[in-house]
Amino acid sequence: MSVIKTPNKPRIAVHKFSSCDGCQLALLNLGEPLLTLAELVEIIHFAEAGPVEPDAEIDIAFVEGSITTPDEKERIQRVRANSRYLITIGACATAGGLQALRNNANASDWMAAVYPSPEFIDTLSTSTAIAEHVRVDFELWGCPINSQQIVAVVRALLFGVTPVKENDSLCMECKRQGNVCVLVTQQQACMGPVTQTGCGALCPSFGRDCYGCYGPKENANADSLSQRFQGFGLMPKEIARRFLLINNHAPAFAEAGQKAIEAEHD
Ligand code: SF4
Ligand code: SF4
Ligand code: SF4
Question: What integer pLDDT is reported at residue 120 of this predicted model?
Fold first, then answer.
């Protein structure tokens, strides 16, 4: 990535696709740092915060949400064409989100079961990550993201430094904080060993297991963790649920979940 050189402040947009808005809220919840950010950049489009100019040309586009409707499939192409850098924020945008559970089911059957008039719903049969449709320059994981990550990415781009991708497992962060391991001491099915860092080891810090909302770490050994869960007495279906949750469409978790489902039928 190159430094952003512009006589004016860099222009930023925050776009929403299929999502719960939680990652945008995480950005709004920044508080004082958001005011500092607003001094460094010009926020052109951020419907949740006020400015609306979705088709403007901008320097950095933050994209929340997955591609779940025909309209979104077209709109993401326009966002890409108008943006110098495109950065996905959150599990929905980076891995399809919870709604990607539909990828392993029949979406039409579900709609017919839930809605009285499903014929009025215009949707795709899948929910997919932004990177499956356009080039993505950087990904921020989490459900929701840690808002400090956005500030760090913007700072890096403003100073011409490539944003740092965190590759550690959550366990590394958890250990650095001196937490008592809930997997070892309480046999809780903690996803920390296969989950990437970034949240500050939030859940184990409060004595509960991680459920993998930051997505798979690099070279995650999901087979080994599945065996450990089996040793705790978890049934294949329960193991599948651990992996097929918020980041169910991320390849490492999808594969581990699928293996557990197959074991259930053996
Ligand atoms: S990643 Fe989570 S918090 Fe963010 S938009 Fe998706 S569901 Fe909401
Ligand atoms: S509690 Fe979870 S994240 Fe923390 S060290 Fe144990 S397994 Fe890893
Ligand atoms: S500990 Fe795990 S589930 Fe909890 S916020 Fe962090 S990544 Fe998400």
Answer: 92
> In angstroms, what CA-CA distances link 13 with 16, 29, 57, 166, 195?
10, 17, 9, 24, 29
| pLDDT over 70 (residue 250) | yes
Q: Which atom of ligand 2 is nearest to the CA of 210?
A: 2
Quote the Cα angle for 85-14-84, to 5°.
Answer: 15
Pocket test for ligand 2, best of 173, 176, 179 (most atoms within 8 A of CB): 179
Residue 163 belongs to some domain of the structure: no
CA of residue 51 to ligand 3 center, whole Å: 31
Q: Output the CA angle 114-118-122, nearest 5 degrees.
A: 120
Q: Which of 228, 117, 133, 104 is nearest to 171 (CA)?
A: 228
Handedness of CA 25, 29, 34, 38 (dihedral sign): positive
Task: Please identify, among 158, 189, 221, the residue that sits at the C-terminal boundary of a domain.
Answer: 158
Distance 129 CA to ligand 2 centre (A): 28
Is the whole model's pTM more than 0.85, yes or no? yes
Which atom number of ligand 3 is nearest to the Cα of residue 143? 8
Pick the last residue of a domain from 131, 158, 185: 158
